[in-house]
Amino acid sequence: MSLPDRHTFYNGKPRSNGSSGPTFQSIDPSTNKPICTIHTSSASEVEQAIRSANLAFPSWASTPPVERSRILLKAASLLRARNDELAKIETLDTGKPFSETSTVDIVTGADVLEYFAHLIASGGLNGEAFHLRDSAWVYTAKEPLGTCAGIGAWNYPIQIALWKSAPCLAAGNTMVYKPSEVTPLHAQFLAEIYTEAGLPDGAFNVVYGDGQVGSLLTKHPGVAKVSFTGQVATGRKVAGAAAGEMKYVTMELGGKSPVIVLPDVDVDQAVDGAMMANFFSTGQVCTNGTRVFVPEQLKTKFEEVLVRKMQYIRPGDLMDPNTNFGPLVSKIHYEKVLGYIKHGIDVDRARLLCGGPGRPESIPLGLKDGYWVRPTVFADCTDDMKIVREEIFGPVMSILTYSSLDEAVQRANNTELGLAAGVFGRDINQCHRVVKQLQAGITWVNTWGESPAEMAVGGWKQSGVGVENGRKGLEAWVRNKSTLVEMGGSVPTVFAKL
Ligand code: NAD
Predict the structure, then answer these.
(1) H helices of 370-437, where?
(2) What is the pLDDT of residue 166?
(3) Residue nearest to atom 19 of ligand 1 (CA)
(4) Do 466 and 163 touch, CB atoms closer than 8 A?
(5) What is the pLDDT of residue 44?
(6) pLDDT for 132-162, tens place per residue?
(7) 304 with 267: CB under 8 angstroms?
(8) Catalytic positions, please?
(9) Handedness of CA 342, 346, 348, 352 (dihedral sign)
(10) Which of 78-92, 264-278, 357-371, 385-399 has the lowest mean pLDDT?
(11) Is the CB of 153 under 6 A from ligand 1?
(12) Ligand 1: residue whose CA is nearest its atom 17
């Protein structure tokens, strides 16, 4: 399949501008074949996109919330109507099975659009008013920020685009969005859907390219906020550039999250959770629970059940509804993950329980050039191993054993990252006690990975700044204005006549 070229999208349309500049390709990760040419946005195209967002801002900001809500709801219904078409694009671009993209990626994006549309129509942007004293009162307003930049990672392309643009637009801001250069195809579809839904030209714009293009956004004085999803190291650069211009930021960064299995656990349930926390999306999920802490006395049982269930992971043709495991997203990422798997065996010397280097055996011949790795489990891991310390962002689980719960919690927290954490156990009080002590912004009890629109999510420590979704997610796109009104007829002053 080959798709038409992608160009910078601003003021309501893709603009080819003569198309003589540099280009890059979107590659189908399952076959290593190019599917689309993308034209890198030039500095002047980025400028045009920001200008177009700046010009659209005043009128969009003063559109009543109920009217903005109606447009966003229309966009959500267009997304749902085109779910499968968009899911196919996401499957081609990311390498995720259609069984996943058609049930998760677009759906969870449209949910958030609906959530924020309903929230603003039902008073979510209202301020407060209170009497300060008999003669004075105070009222507050939530004002939009202006033009905001959204910069996305490659793993949940359309979901990330929607988790940023939905609250941004709902709050009355405009956006210039840069998808990851690895998975950029969703962006034009989303821009076109917004236009079709009635969003004014210029309110949502798309620029294409790598970090260089991203950095034009982060330091531009016409951009009021940067909402970034990506690696911690990139996040530091982005937040640094934005701080120079005193911009608002939201940072959604990486993790190395712990799963703590309690001694009284239903082992089947804990294994299912640990598998979701490591192999869903081929392990390319920021909240992955890659450090699985198992009580010493459960180690053998846990490993037995896990090995038995690993056979339910089914790599293969991505459009086959039974396929639930795809390739990694790109050649570079494939090499990185494979490097970690080899390091785990050769240097860390962890015990390889499943997987290892090489492609899954069941991959059909037509897909042999794709970026496939085997779902891999290391056992007898220790906290100092590189595979246990660093974010791999691939299907690599590390099992660690513990003897006391205090020790497990202390070791789980012994990381600079704090994105997610979870507990599996039958004693729900004990689960809550453990969750209370875990240093992470997103925590789960007896489940893993669900992130509904109503739930604010964001990392602690080096894993991020601020949250997305939930009521708090809307607050991240407004600034407060407080007004004190004096009705006493005289201004308090020290400059009165003696
Ligand atoms: P990345 O940091 O390499 O790139 C992210 C985006 O930043 C891309 O669009 C890239 O072009 C852009 N970029 C790169 N350098 C830049 C610069 N100097 N200025 C501005 N923009 C720049 O991340 P990635 O490899 O695409 O994504 C994987 C990472 O994202 C993982 O670490 C994962 O944990 C994280 N992630 C976090 C969340 C979350 O919600 N916390 C969600 C998804 C992914």
Answers:
(1) 386-389, 405-412, 428-437
(2) 99
(3) 215
(4) no
(5) 96
(6) 999 999 999 999 999 999 999 999 999 999 9
(7) no
(8) 252
(9) positive
(10) 357-371
(11) yes
(12) 211
pLDDT digits 0-9 by tens, 402-446: 999 999 999 999 999 999 999 999 999 999 999 999 999 999 999
Does the C-beta of 415 come closer than 6 Å to ligand 1?
Answer: no
CB count, 10 Å around CB of 180?
23
Tokens describing residue 183: 């998975």
Which residue has tokens 């700044």?
A: 465
Residue 19 has pLDDT above 80, yes or no: no
Which residue has tokens 């039974």?
322
Tell whether the torsion through CA atoms of 399, 401, 404 and 408 is positive or negative. Answer: negative
Q: How far is it, in rounded angstroms, from Cα 383 to Cα 405? A: 16
Q: What is the length of the chain? A: 498
pTM for the model stands at 0.97
The candidate with the shortest Cα–Cα distance to 294, out of 401, 190, 431, is: 401
Token code pair at residue 76: 């959500």
CA–CA separation, 35 and 389 (whole Å): 36
299: amino acid identity, one letter: K
Structural domains in the chain, CATH included, are 9-254+463-483 (3.40.605.10), 258-445 (3.40.309.10)
**pLDDT computed for residue 355 by the predictor:** 98
